Each structure stands twice: as structure tokens, then as C-alpha cells.
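User: For a benchmark we're assembling, each entry needs the component sequences followed by a predicted structure for the full assembly. Here are entry 17's components. Please fill in the structure.
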Amino acid sequence: MNLHEYQSKFRFEEFGIPIPHGKVAETPEEARQIAQEVGGPVVVKAQVLTGGRGKAGGVKLAATPEEAEQHARSILGMDIKGHIVRKVLVDPAANIEQEIYLGITNDRAARMPVIMCSAEGGMDIEEVNRVKPEAIIREHIDPLLGLRSYQINALASGIELPYPLWRQFQKIAACLYRCYMESDATLAEINPLIITAEGDLLAVDGKMSLDDNALFRHRDLAALRDTSAEPAVETQAREAGLSYVKLDGQIGCMVNGAGLAMATMDMTSIFGEADGIGPANFLDIGGGADADTVAAALRIILADPDVKAILLNIFGGITRCDEVARGVIAAFSEVHVKMPKVVRLVGTNEEEGRQLLQEANIPDMVTATTLSEAAQKAVAAVKGA
Amino acid sequence: MNLHEYQSKFRFEEFGIPIPHGKVAETPEEARQIAQEVGGPVVVKAQVLTGGRGKAGGVKLAATPEEAEQHARSILGMDIKGHIVRKVLVDPAANIEQEIYLGITNDRAARMPVIMCSAEGGMDIEEVNRVKPEAIIREHIDPLLGLRSYQINALASGIELPYPLWRQFQKIAACLYRCYMESDATLAEINPLIITAEGDLLAVDGKMSLDDNALFRHRDLAALRDTSAEPAVETQAREAGLSYVKLDGQIGCMVNGAGLAMATMDMTSIFGEADGIGPANFLDIGGGADADTVAAALRIILADPDVKAILLNIFGGITRCDEVARGVIAAFSEVHVKMPKVVRLVGTNEEEGRQLLQEANIPDMVTATTLSEAAQKAVAAVKGA
Amino acid sequence: MAILIDNNTRLLVQGMTGQQGLFHTRQMIAYGTNVVGGVTPGKGGQWVEGKPVFDTVRRAKETTGANASVIYVPAPFAADAILEAIDAGIELIVAITEHIPVLDMMRVRNVLDRSSSRLVGPNCPGLLTPGQSKVGIMPGHIAMPGPVGVVSRSGTLTYEAIYALTRRGIGQSTCVGIGGDPVNGTNFIDVLQMFEDDPDTEKVVLIGEIGGTDEQKAADFIAQHMTKPVVAFVAGRKAPEGRTMGHAGAIVEGGVGTAAEKIARFQDVGVRVAQTPEEIAELIAS
Amino acid sequence: MAILIDNNTRLLVQGMTGQQGLFHTRQMIAYGTNVVGGVTPGKGGQWVEGKPVFDTVRRAKETTGANASVIYVPAPFAADAILEAIDAGIELIVAITEHIPVLDMMRVRNVLDRSSSRLVGPNCPGLLTPGQSKVGIMPGHIAMPGPVGVVSRSGTLTYEAIYALTRRGIGQSTCVGIGGDPVNGTNFIDVLQMFEDDPDTEKVVLIGEIGGTDEQKAADFIAQHMTKPVVAFVAGRKAPEGRTMGHAGAIVEGGVGTAAEKIARFQDVGVRVAQTPEEIAELIAS
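Assistant: Structure for entry 17:
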């Protein structure tokens, strides 16, 4: 789960990191009022969960409250890479002497968090990594020991930060780490962390991503999720505990397990390639899915107008085939679907599952034994439709 | 540094441990008022930094506010093992079903904290350890990993705590550990932690000791020190950064380093034994002591009326002999002392130190080369005095 | 002989009294696994499916002599359960639980590296040595004893591979699901080494997927240390970049971790790569 | 040969620019110690006493090839300094700083146990190999080269022992102050083993004190593993129970850790125990 800039920065501030004292506006009038309160020039910034807002004209400097209102009017409602801007952050403009990058993420290979710092702030860190990797100073953090003061010194030394700023930098890095750990974040970055003309450090832009698996212990953070920005099916899928990714084919796939869902995606793609047929989605109903989950998954697939056939591929381990069958029957009795359905049920309680499906007598349903067979039948069904 | 019961419990409460909602009184009238606010029977408890207050009559149950006032009147001003009672805690009386012990301390041999729990609450844990060691359940805590939930389960299981209380117990133990670590404690104990008739857990008595070396990062805790209860010389010694222990002999010792101070104490004791002569104190001026520290140390020694001779034993490593000499000269020029002085200066800058002392021409001073010689001369001086 | 589990495995079930735990305890017992007890804090002293339940793993181990543990504890408590098993000195710990927070697993991994326990998982289907012992959630009836070792990052794809082998009459020595989480206990290389050393294993099936570089490292290991033939399958050939495919481990980031890259590395070192799950069995047979 | 430090010791000074650090850096250089540089965060690039100063230990080690480090950093920052030296892979770390919080040292100890570094101290006078190298704060002029190893929990008592030996014309191989803190890096047994293995050491002096059980463990070790004669001295024979004598380690708790107990254990295993510091030299000479 990603946080908006303003959410990330407000979270940073809770942990003691200095940020510009701006506010969020949802209307141009609010933006004007905030600019008035702030006094002096402000920056009006689109709050969207995607990059590239600067190039899209989503960040503008305003000298007066009137100008702030005008900018907010032009930015609010803007479409940036499919995301509609519904909020702007109005921040006091800072006098920037230098821009620094400071971020923490998980290094999966090293199995520990890593803090990264670069004097090339403002740029995308992945871009810096490509162009000038030696400009990034990295320190791996033992998660049991925490970020140590000497490691922060190594960062400061590495980017040749002027010594009078080291004390502030120590505090900001330590606070960012605490924020990262106590939020169960997978990314917490300040970009840029600026040196102001007044000789202070200030986090003028920020970004946080959180571990969805850890949201159970962060109800306050979970409540920050902005579902207005994402497609409705993604919200539905998440709330049903499903993993769903929209693709551009015609076969609606419902599978248990990420690996098998990927293989199903691969197989339909490969067998359908010659005819321009492929998977309409990746959908993993997870382990131990019950009837309700399966019904919810089917509803999501059926909501996609591109879907011309359904492929249900269940290999039961923790998932019991009879439960899946019950879900399928419930879903089909709720929504009437004319399209062809290919069903493959193997594994725990497969006999009971097949029995149930047979008794339900669902129209246009064929069964398959192997994955290849199931994928081929689904492709054929789309061709024949 | 030890905290009073009320200070420990209020600290526990900050970390989420349930305690009786009592208050501290310094006068009988205050005690009456608190009892009135609390309503119902109360316990009036002497706040002293020593054990055995119960036997001494320092803890009394009062049915009415009037009775609370009477008890407070009798307890306030009481002398318990040399400690004058200046405060009482007035707590609502609890309905006790069972008493549990729960405490954390450092296990030096294992080099990690250990949490201990026993169904024999209310008793002194060292007494339980002597009489019935198997009644104490212990879990060592990896300081990097923290106290784990499963370890708390092991304690609950070990003392056969009724299952409905496990959730509360989990929280209390986890909070106690956080309190311990975030206070840099060397002891944090709840004794007893009671099961009330209402089926809740409640910390009715508590005790904390803090690591003096870590007080620099706990200014709020350092401010809790109650110097009214300790001898003035101990306060003076601590404030001057000295380690001072009063003994019952006649030779005032000033030494640098704990080991050498102990050896000096041993030598004077051994050489003086036949004549009933021995050290008046243990006093370690520490490493790198400067003139001010030495002067402060000398003042503390001279304040002791039992002292008949002074033995100054300095072996300079980090402590420089010339610095020590300057301190000695400063102290003697301030306070005129008629008694004999034995001085031994060896180590870093010993020549300069001896030179300075010689030039100062301090009366009744003799020098020594070895520790045995110095101790023998000091004993002889007391005999001759 | 097989690897990791066999007839000598004495299994504890952590979270035995929960719904999943109970269901799979019955399945494991039915398969013939020697389940010696369960652990559920607060339920110590009860009996479930004829097995004693304990409050703590340490007590359970002392009483039953267990040498392995399987964890069905819900995600919020699962890291603690793993740490408890490590602390109690359980030799083999199999964590089925999915959705454990990654920072929890980083802490676990840190402790694990200092211990003598082996962790398989989390977010894995467990282990199956056909005819001897089943630890986890694999459907036992699709497997049969034989000479092929199976190791996989994916749960249900493991079943596909076993299913395909069994349908062709090829049995398995041990099937190991290592799980799809980015931070876990046992990786491909660990298991490949065990199969290489196991006299009962003649050939190996490896099931990989997109994300990370574990398959590339496995390819290097195979080239340098394996004498037994390996057949691989890699899921996610058609996965779009930057989208997480079902679990945190399966994501192609900045062009790194693609199926094409992994397949190429396998082929470079002489590992044959199957195009469909069914082809796995064909390549093993040939 | 000596132990721990000699002519090949290339020393970093952490906290070189502080008052104590600077004073003792000069003393060490004057003694002949090969000080190769210093570390003070934020002062990297400066030169002090003709030695380069670095911001971090890692950089200092890379540049100077240091293999040892001595720490004069104030207590609030000392644990971090030790961890930095461990992280940088410094082989020998000598921490002079006293008053480090005990929880800090427990964390350090935990990390140290997983590393290949050796820590001596904290709260110790350091090491002295007469005529070769001096690391710490021992007054070098009281020592002379020779065949006796000295190991001690007490700072100034170490000097007493050295002083007594030298006055009798007996030189020292290496003098090691292990420090008086309850949680530290190196204990008696570690050093006794090194002296046992060192061909330049013929006899050993051990200086103990009240508190804990390290002397008892040393006695057991001597009985089982030492062939070289050991003379001991134990401070605090007249210490009252329950009062801390100067530092957290020196306290007799509930009758445990008394000098009498320790002396008896030494005598039981044939270690001669001196009554005065001067007697140490007499017993060694005899």
C-alpha cells in the first residue's frame, strides 16, 4: 500500500522529521486560504499515487494566494497517468541550496533493510542507480540492532555533508528509521531532503510504501488508504483477500496459488498466442479459500467486459475442492453467465468437489484433467464464441 | 539509583501496567483528603528506600479517611532502618485473591536480562529462591530480540495462571519489559502482582533500580532521586563523581581505581588489625580525576569525625600525578588539617607531582613508595596520634 | 532415506487446535505421519485427535521427544511461533502460514542464522516423503514413492509437478515446498545439496518463478556441485513488469528477475526447462 | 611474540581528538606504538600528531590497514564506537571508556559473539607489551620486557603488580587489563589460554577482586589447562557485603563472590595467592 506525499510527510513529522508546514486542499478556495495562512510564496502539488506529476504540470509555484487558487483549479481534477487528482498539498516554498536523497527500503537479497543516501537529490533514485551508482551511499541495517549512529556518520561523510549539518542529519536519519520500522514500511524516502538557504535540513517531498501483511497492527495507517484513486475491482479484490492483476486477454482465470496462477496465465498465453487469445487477468484466490471468496472472485472476473470464457483451475492442498465447488455454484446461481466455462479441480477432496459441480448442472461447463488441457479448452472456447 | 514504590508504580502506569489509583501525601491532612477522594478503605504506605517497612509498622489499612489521617500521622517521621519517612502513599485497598511475583533484572553471568515469575508473590524473591527455587520460573531475554510472547506464555503456564488472565498477563509482562529497557533499569519488579476478587491483575507494589551510568539519557528519571533519604556525604560524593563507602576505621583513604582502593582498604585493615585500626572509608576518585575532584574527595574525608589520619594512594595511568598533587594542595590550603598524612604518588607524571607537593610544604606529611609501606605508615600515624 | 522427513520424524503441530491446524493434523495422521503432540498456549493439558496439547514448544519437546514442528499459527503470531521453536531447539521447523510481515521474517532470519534449526517456509505447502511422512498441506494421494526429488517456490505448482510425475508412473523421494516469500528459511541451493547427497534421489525437479535471483543462484550451484540431472520449470513467462503476482516475492523489478533470464541461465548450465507442467514428467522420463 | 599486541600492531585511536584521546595518543606514540590514524566523526581529513583523522572506522581501516583500535570515546557514544569497530572488522578492539550503560554492553556483547573481533574492556587500562607496543593508558615507564604475563580486572592494581615485578627486576611479556565491568569482552580464561600458548610467557600473574565468579572459573581453567605457574592476588578481602566497591562489578551479593571464596578456590588448585602487591613479585621470583 502506497501513501500520498502529504500522508508520508505528516507521518515523518510525527517521528520528528522537519517538513514544510503546509496543508491539504480539496478545492481551489481552500488552497487560497492555506496560501494566505502560510504567507509568502507556496508550492501547489498534486497528490496522486504515481510518478511524473511534475512533468504533467501537477506541481506549480505560486507567488500569491490568488495564484495558488488558480493553480489549484487547474491541477484538481487533472488526469495523471490514469489517476485523477482530488487533493493538492499547499506547502510554503523553501529556499533550496542543495538537494539530498535519503531513503530506506528492504534489501531482499541481504534480508535486511538498507538506508541509501545521495547528494543527487530530487532525481529518481533508480535513475541515479543506473547512471551513477557510486553516488549512492548504502548502509545495511541489522533489524535487531537498528540503525547505528556510526552508519549515519558514514552516510554524511559519504555525501560530504557540511559538518554543521551532521547533528540535524543524525536526527533525521534516526527518525526516518524509527518511522520505517514502526510503520512496517517497505519504502520510506525523503526526496529531496534539502539544505535551505538558512542552513537547515527540510524534507520537502516524501514517499512511503507499507507492507500490506503488517497492516493488521497499524489500523491508523490502514485507514489512510485512498481507494478513490484505484480501479474498483482492485478494491473489491483486496477486500475479498484476493490477488488480482488486470491483463489484456479474454480468458478470465481463477486459480489457487500464485505459482499456479502464473503458470495458468503462461499456458493460456502460449496456447492462444497464434489466435491473439490470452488471459484477461491474474487471479489468485489464495490458500484455504472458502465459498464466499470464490464467489467474490467470480464476480470480479464477470465484471470485466473483455472476458469471453472462464477458466477455473484449482489444485487443492490447503484449499478444499468441495469448498471451491460450493463457491462456484453459489456465484453462478447469483449471476447468470452465458459464456463457456472450463473447470479443473484436483487435490484435497476432489471427488466431493466434482460430485457437487456435476449435481449443480451448470450450463456450458467442460472439465479438464491437466493444466495444458484446461488452457487449450479455454482457448478453443474463446475461438468458438 | 533506587526509586520509591510510588515512583516505580507511576512509571509502570506510564507504560500501561494497571496500578491502584492512589496518591502521595506529605502530611496527615493530605492523606485524609486522598482517602476521601478514593472512597472506601485505603492502605497507607511509608515511602522509604529500604525493605522491612511492613514489619516496622510502616504499612497500615484504614477503613475511613479519619483513620487514614491517624495512620499517616504515626507513619510520617518514622525511622525505618535509618531512613526517615517523609511521604506516604495512600492507595485504595484491593481484594486480593492471589499474589504473584513478576520481576526483571540483569543476569550478569548470562549477560542478558532475565524475567522471573512466581506464584509465591508478596514474599521477597531472594527468600523464595533460597527456600523453594523451583517455584521461580525464569526466561532469559535476548536484548536484541526483546521479550517474546511465547516466553510470557511459558511464565503463565509455569505458575499455572488461570487461562482467562493470560491476555492481561501478556500485556503486563510486555509493558514491564518495555519499562525496564526504556528506563535502563537494573531491576523492575511487581511484588505482588495480585489477582483481584473481580478477576483482574493489579500491580499493588513495585520497585525499580536504575543504572546510574545510563541516567544521562533519562533526565526525567534522574530528577526523581530522593537525596533527603541518604547521608549528605553520599550525595556530595556522587555529585563530585566519586565512589564513596563509609567504613568504621580511622584512616581516611583516597585512592584512584576501585581495585587499588579495595587493596588499600585491605592493607590498612590487615596491618592495623592487631591495634583495632582500619580504613574509615572506601573512596575511589576514578580515572582521569582532576584537581577539583581531588579537593572534593579530601573535603568528604575530612568531614568524617572518625578520621585520625589520611592515606593518599595514587597510581597514575589515566590519572596524572601532577593533577592530583594540585588538588591536594588546593584542598589543604582551604581546610587546615592537623592530622598526619601519608602520600604515595606513582605513575604518569609522578616526578612533577612529587615536586609540586614538596614545594607546597604541607605539614605532617610523609611519603611512601609501596602500598604496604604506605598502609603501615598510616597505621603507625593513627597509633601515634 | 529421503531428505528432511521420514519414518523417524516426530512431529509437533503448533496451532493444532485452530481450524486449519486441526484439519491438516487429521490429514497428516491419516497419511501416517507420526504426530506426537500439539502446542496451543492456554490449552496445555487437553487432548486432540488422541495427541497431547502443550502450552509451550519447550514443554512439548521435553515430553514427546519431538524433532520437527509444523506451524499453522495465524500470521500475526507466526513469527513468534517460529522463534519459540528455534528457542526450544526443534531441528526442523516447517511454517505453512502465509502473509507474515517481512520485518518479522527478517528478525526471524537473523535468529535462525545463529541457531542449529532448519526452517522451511513460511508461506509454503510443507514437505512430503511419499509413503513415510507428510508435514504440511500437500495432498498426499497425488504422490507415490520413487527416485525423483521435487523442490519448488510455489505451492500449487508443486502439486502439478507431483501429479504429472505420478500420472506417468514416476515416484518421488521427497517433495519440498520452500515457499514464495522474499525472506524465508530454506532456499533452492540448500535442498539441491540435500538431494545430491541423498542416495534415494536420482533426479531432481526444480520449480521456480519470476522475482529475485534464487533460480540464477541455483543454476550456478547445479553447474558446480550437482551430478544428478535436474529438470526445471519457471512460472511467470508472461508476467508484466512491476506488478506483484500474488505474493511479495513474485515481481519483475526493473527488468530483473524475469522468467526469460532464469530459463536462459538454466539452459546455459545444461538444465532442461519444461514448457508445461506435463512436460516436466516427460523430460524426467527421457 | 607476546600476546594481543606487539610490533606488528597498527593502531587506530577512536576519539583521538578529545582531551583524553589526544593525551594518550601522544603517550602511546612516545612509547613507540605504531598509531596509524584516528577516527572522529566530522573531522575526517584533518591531521593530528602527524596522523590522519577519518570520519569512520571503515574508511580509516581501508586507508591505513589498521588491525587494532583503542576507544577513548565518552560513555554515551562508546557502545556505538565498539559496534563500528566490529562492523569494520577490526581484529582487536580495546575500550578504555568507563561508565558505559550495562544494556548497551549487553547489546554489544551479543553482536561481538557473532563476529571475529576480540574486545578487551571496557573500563580497562588497556594492554602493554613492554618495549613493543602500548595500547591504552598504562604508564609505560613502570614496565620492562620479560617472561611474566599479567592479567587483571583492576586498572590501578595492574600497575601495582607491574611496578612490584619491575622493582624486583622481573620483566613482563604482556600486561592485559580486562576491566571491571560485569559485561565485557575478554575474561580471565581467554587471556590465560593465550599466555599458556605464548612461548615468551613463562609465568602468569592474575589480579582478581570481589564480585561474580570469574576468578572461580579461572581457577577451574588453570587446574585443567595450564602448565605454567600462576600467582594470584584478590582485592576486597575486607569489603562489606552488599556495598558496591567503585564499579558495578565489584559487589558481594548474598555471600556470593567474596574474596575468601576466590582465594580458597585458587589455593585448592595450587595457585599461590599473594597477601600484598609486593608479595606478588616475591612469589613469582621464588
